[in-house]
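In this section we turn from sequence analysis to structure. A common task in structural bioinformatics is to predict how a protein folds when a small molecule is present, because the ligand can shape the pocket around it. The inputs are simple: the amino acid sequence and a SMILES string for the ligand, here magnesium ion. Study the lines below before reading on.
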Amino acid sequence: MNEEFRRPVVVFDLDDTLYSERDYVLSGFRAVGAFLDSDEAAEKMISSWETGKDPYAAIGADGEETARLLGHYRSHFPEISLRPGAEETLRVLRESGVAMAIVTDGRSVSQRQKLKALGLERYVAPDMIFISEEVGEPKTGGKALRAIVSRYPEASGFFFVGDDPAKDFVVPNRMGWTTICLTGDAGNIHSQDFGQTAGGDPQISVDRLPEILPLIIKD
Ligand SMILES: [Mg+2]
């Protein structure tokens, strides 16, 4: 617990907030293709995924083979990069003494590889990274956010920055946080339709991550 900390705390979702999840999916299929030594397999998987079909069926993988390839996909080291403006945003927040956390749903192995590939350990302390498989519940359970509040009980404000109105904002809204949705990218994996989930709409929407800075840093 840090009772001396009286500055803001900003919690980021990971997928489709700090980087494009579509890029991760494409990277995964390319890794599977490389594993099979077949560019053609990678291309087949990508085009079937893009048309909503089963990418593993598209290359004729049976149940056992699919499980093996999925394991490879989930543990691959991805070729992904931070969204435009994300690096600048994280740097300014760090320089301003804002505490940062990441709360993300997913498998430990996959999310850890993404964090490493994006270099996010430079900005977020190890004990401020919460991955659902490690936490033992999805982010909608609230355990991670409660842990963050109890770590910084005197923070001047709590912000949640995400992309998915079905999941990201329900708990922080209920806890009285400021919720910010990053919109403006049609390539997102999850729909950004507002008004679909009770209590799930964000308070603020921004098109680019640097727009959150004046909302958080007031002086
Ligand atoms: Mg997301």
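Residues 22-75 form one domain. As an exercise, try to locate the residues that line the magnesium ion site and compare them with your own expectations.
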